Amino acid sequence: MTPARATAPRLPLTALLLVIGLSACAQTAAEPPSIETPKADPSLASMYGAIRDGDETIPGVDVSKMDPKNVRQVVDYKTGYPPGTIVVDPHSRFLYLVMKGGKAMRYGVGVAKAGTEFEGEADIARKARWPGWVPTQNMIKRNPERYGPFASGLEGGIMNPLGARALYLYQGGKDTLYRIHGTNEPWTIGKSVSSGCIRLLNHDIIDLHRRVPKGAKVVVLGPEQSGKGEV
């Protein structure tokens, strides 16, 4: 005699609906459609791409990580200073090269930490490509561990903190020891980190160095003048 086949007990309709509902909740939610990261403007990528300069190769800057305001650009700028003047606004973290027609080339900069700022007017008495660097005695005194090993100087090159170019600020024929220069630390642009100098991306200091002649005037604004020129 063939044994009777066991049959699964039938679930009440309410229990069946509950099982179906729980199964639906346990399903993995569909992944949202992927969103592509916007591609960098090709012109900016070209502006800040890797470049060969003499015996040195300057690494490219990832423009997708740059604050757009720090990108080199022409802006409307009202000032009483003549074209060719460099106006540094350390409080807004910008450097302006005054141009004709109420315009200026604007560069994002890194500036001095509190207590080491330069303010006033000076002249560019010297221009240098891949300059050497010697820390000042005050720098060594403030931070002997960092600057002491370089007391005798460091030759120019990609590892030099002055970067690819330097503009030397003089007053009355005397070196102020302040510089406008490049940097091998691009993440410091827009910040207050230096020992008194004004630093630009290497790509930008090369551009500025090319545009300004020896003898050009530099004006470093005080806090009361900050942000008043750009329209």
UniProtKB/TrEMBL annotation:
Provide the alphabetized UniProt keywords.
Answer: Cell shape, Cell wall biogenesis/degradation, Glycosyltransferase, Hydrolase, Peptidoglycan synthesis, Signal, Transferase
Pathway it works in: Cell wall biogenesis; peptidoglycan biosynthesis
Parts forming coiled coils: none
Q: Which PROSITE patterns does the UniProt record give?
A: LD_TPASE, PROKAR_LIPOPROTEIN
Q: Name one Pfam family in it.
A: YkuD
> Which residue positions does the secretion signal occupy?
1-26
Q: Which domain of life is it from?
A: Bacteria
- Catalytic residues, per the record, are H181, C197
Q: Which residues form the L,D-TPase catalytic domain?
A: 84-221
**Protein family (similarity comment):** Belongs to the YkuD family.
Protein name, UniProt field = L,D-transpeptidase
Native species of this protein?
Pseudorhizobium endolithicum
| The organism's taxonomic lineage, starting at the top | Bacteria, Pseudomonadati, Pseudomonadota, Alphaproteobacteria, Hyphomicrobiales
